[in-house]
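Protein: Putative addiction module antidote protein
Species: Allochromatium humboldtianum
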Amino acid sequence: MTKKIRIADLPEFDITEYLEDDQAIVEYLSIVLEENDPALLAAAIGDIARARGMTEIAKATGLSREAFYKALRADAQTRIDTANRVCQSLSIKRVA
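Structure follows.
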């Protein structure tokens, strides 16, 4: 007989633990961009910022930490200029 595992007993998955270097970040963004979903893109940029350090990224974008979190929620209507500032502060570049 197989042992049943309760979903509540599973550890919560956190993508930020796997975004350790630029290559991982580029691969993650490539997958997200294929979905063509602005909300998913905002959430992914938020994941990347959390992996790199939200406070430092927020300062680099000129946003308050609270506004930064709010702008990168999956249900937020993130403005393109906000997303662009975040990407620039993360030094996200295309890897060939």
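Remarks: The radius of gyration is 15 Å.
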